[in-house]
From TrEMBL:
Signal peptide: none annotated. This is Alpha/beta fold hydrolase. Residues 16-246 form the AB hydrolase-1 domain. The keyword DNA-binding does not apply. It comes from the Bacteria. InterPro entries: AB_hydrolase_1, AB_hydrolase_fold, Epox_hydrolase-like. Coiled coil: none annotated. It comes from Vibrio gallaecicus. GO terms for molecular function: hydrolase activity. Keywords: Hydrolase.
Length: 253
């Protein structure tokens, strides 16, 4: 029996599964969950190597998708709607190969292998906190500031800190595995074309999903459409949750 993902279920009705991105946890899409749980059952999960879920040396999209399928089978959930952000969006897309999905919403992610390493400074900051053996969140923030310029990114990361029995601040996510598997995280294995009803929501100011990715989308998704949220970056659901929710609700009706 494989290890099971940590999860939270709220609400009643058709099930929507929310899948967070890199360095996140099941609370990251909370703004969406708080609205959607009013008329749906919302399943929020911690992916492997994140949050309260198990740690593993393996971290690739097929394995992560299998983890989600195992959880859905355990909970006896079928024909679900999947919403995934960033890395979670790639997990969501990989799920189309393993199970029947009613509809798919991908937040600011393309089904492609990215060439750019966007997180080297983040990994440097995470490693520095580990080496500094910080004893408080404020200490960890000070260490992170030497590597990560944007305060919002530092605040986001420290949501995954906890104090160990030794009194040292530690990361809930598995820094070593995420770093060693980073090429898998930014990579992508082309999937067989799927006809699952799919909505790609792009942050207008983000370059994770661009016109040059259109061919790759059409190659793998025969029933996909795109929606742009203007004046938002990669964290569109946090920046403009009302607009993102409006697009989601219009799509999943």
């Amino acid at each position: 029996m494989s290890a099971q993902l940590n999860y939270k279920i709220e609400g009643e009705g058709h099930t929507i599964v929310l899948i967070h991105g890199l360095f996140g946890n099941l609370d990251n899409l909370g703004l969406l969950a708080r609205d959607l749980r009013n008329d749906h059952q919302v399943l929020s999960i911690d992916l492997r190597n994140h949050g309260q879920s198990f740690h593993s040396d393996q971290h690739n999209y097929l394995e992560m998708a299998r983890d989600v399928v195992n959880l859905l089978n355990t909970l006896e959930l079928t024909d679900v709607t999947i919403i995934g952000h960033s890395m979670g969006g790639k997990v969501a897309m990989a799920l189309t190969q393993l199970t029947t999905i009613r509809q798919l919403v991908v937040l600011d992610m393309a089904p492609v292998a990215y060439q750019q390493r966007r997180h080297d400074n983040v990994f440097a900051g995470l490693q520095a906190v580990i080496e500094a053996k910080s004893v408080s969140r404020s200490e960890a923030l000070t260490v992170l500031a030497k590597h990560i310029e944007i305060d919002g990114v530092r605040q986001f990361l420290t949501k995954s800190l906890f104090k160990s029995e030794q009194g040292i601040m530690e990361w809930r996510f598995n820094v070593a595995s995420l770093l060693s598997n980073y090429s898998q995280i930014i990579g992508w294995e082309l999937i067989d074309k799927t006809s699952v009803k799919t909505l790609l929501i792009k942050g207008g100011d983000s370059d994770y999903l661009t016109a040059e990715h259109q061919a790759a989308v059409q190659q793998q998704f025969s029933n996909a459409k795109a929606h742009v949220i203007a004046n938002t970056g990669h964290w569109l659901h946090a920046e403009k949750p009302a607009e993102v929710l409006r697009a989601i609700r219009k799509f999943i009706v």
